[in-house]
Structures are given as C-alpha cells and as structure tokens.
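Please review this one.

:::
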Amino acid sequence: MAVVFLLGPGMWDPARRPVADPSPMQVRRAIAKTMKEHGHRVILMEDDPDRPGEDYIQKFDRLLRDRVTDVVLYWPSAAKVQTTYDELILLCDRRGFLKRESVRLWALHHSSVATIKRDEFKVLETGNRSRYLTAVARLGLRPLEWSDEGELEAQARLLAAEL
C-alpha cells in the first residue's frame, strides 16, 4: 500500500477558463478515490484540518512526513497554479528528505501545460516558471501525460495499479 500526497490546483483561472465543474479539486478527489480503491492512502492538504498555530509550510511538512511514499502532482490546463508552484519549490527544498525516504514523484499533467524530461521541466502555459521547475524534474519526476478526460482516468488507474 502506498501513501500518496496528492498535490495540484483547486480551481480554474477565471481569466483563462470559465469557472465550471468539475473543478480541479473535484478531479483530484476523483483521482484520490481511484487510488483508494486500489488500497492506497491519499492525503490532500485541503482535507486535512489545520492545527492551531500551524502555518502552510508547517502543514505541508507534517503531511509530507506522514509516511508518504509517493507525491503525485495533478496539473490540468487553465488552472490557478501559483500555490502548486510553491508546493513544487517546497519539494525541491526537501530534496534530502525525499531521497533518504525514497519518495517517488509523479506528474499527472495535461499535454498543453508542460513537457517534462529527465533534466528539464518546460512550462508551456503563460507565466513560464521553467527555470524554477527544472530543479523539480531533476528530483526524478516521472511524467504521466494526458490530453483528455478519458486519458486522465486511464493514467490515474494505471498509476494506482503501479503504486
């Protein structure tokens, strides 16, 4: 059984896509359900209660250190991703921990948002953060690309089976 820390945006960017359902958060919950059906425990920051006096970074660290075996990034096109960028940078800062604990990193990303290779993470969307995210690719990020909802569901099922 894997313990999956499922990261990604919670909402659409209203400047780039009308707010509609399902929201990225709803899709992440569906991905979490698929993983749970395969016997995995899934952690979503939004679903874990804040603790008194705990800031966002402390919460991220607490959850990451809760026996996590895999971090999965869900990244659709036209979503608000600033917080997701922040989470990826936090992962880079925890490089030693990730390596020591053998935590695997996966990117379940839409084909229009990025190209991810062994030592390169190229953001294709506006607000290019490629230079920052290349460090994430060098952590051993495993890309899983999809281009429509059917492919996303298939990739999520395959990932759940592989974990």
